[in-house]
Amino acid sequence: MARSAPRVISFVTLVAVVLCSAAAAAGAWRYFHKNPQNPVVRWDEYVTMGWVAWDSSWYMRIAQEGYQFIPGQQSSVAFFPLYPLLIRAVETLGPNVYQAGVLITLLCGPLALVMFTLWARRLTDNDTALKAGLLMACYPFTFYFYGAMYSDALFVLLVVTAFLLLERGLLLPAVLVAAVATAARPVAPAVVVGLLVRRLEWKRERGEKWTVVDFLPVFAGLGFGCYMLFLWHKFGDPLAFVKVQGAAGWDQNPGWRTWLKVSWFERVLLNPTDKREAFRLAAHAFFTLLALALVWPTRKLLGWGYAAYLLVMVGLPAWSTKDFMGMGRYLLSAFPVFLTAALLLRQRPLVWRASVAVGAVSVIVLSWAFGADYYIS
Question: What is the largest CA-CA distance in the chain?
Answer without folding.
Answer: 71
